[in-house]
Specification:
Strand content: 15-25%
Number of helices: 5
Radius of gyration: 16 Å
Mean pLDDT: 91
Helix content: 25-40%
Distance between the termini: 60 Å
Structural class: alpha/beta
Low-confidence stretches: none
Number of strands: 6
């Protein structure tokens, strides 16, 4: 299994992209709280070029969903949660409780929160779209300032088209 990495610049700061066998396995924020894994050798691959292009399009408001091969590593429950995160539409949020209900038991809320916090592919797998039941911004591996930035970026424009005043 070949592991390689690249560092790209974004409005959120530098992101370290990690790939295993031609699929992204992790994205780390500079100064983020995710555990570091083996980065492998630096590489210049088509996958990293496509990821950098898609991140640029996302931050420019031209992309609402990433289309990259992904290979996150995690426990079966975490993988189920991360799959649900990918289904949260751009510009919308959900709660830990709502995700827990989709998994079959509202009692899973804390476990959903823990899995959300271990998401190895932030932004691409949009864990930033999960908020507290009271609407509060709860933790984010990249920090709450980055979470606010991402949610503001995805906020729908006000409905002013066609208005005279």
């Amino acid at each position: 299994m070949s592991t390689v990495h690249a560092v790209i610049g974004t409005p959120l700061g530098e992101l370290t992209l990690i790939a295993r066998d031609d699929a992204l396995s992790a994205v780390h924020f500079a100064g983020g709280r995710h555990r570091r894994e083996d980065l492998g050798e630096p590489a210049d691959t088509e996958l990293f070029a496509a990821a950098e292009r898609q991140f640029a399009e996302y931050f420019d408001g031209r992309r609402t969903r990433f289309d990259l091969p992904l290979a996150p590593r995690g426990e079966p429950f975490q993988l189920r949660v991360w799959t649900l995160l990918e289904e949260i539409p751009y510009g919308e949020t959900t709660t830990y409780g709502a995700l827990a209900r989709r998994l079959g038991d509202v009692g899973y809320s804390q476990a959903v929160g823990a899995a959300n916090g271990q998401n190895p592919l932030p932004v691409i797998v949009p864990c930033h779209r999960v908020i507290g039941a009271d609407g509060s911004l709860t933790g984010y591996a990249g920090g709450l300032d980055r979470k606010r930035y991402l949610l503001a970026l995805e906020e729908p424009p006000p409905e002013t088209a066609g208005r005279l005043f």
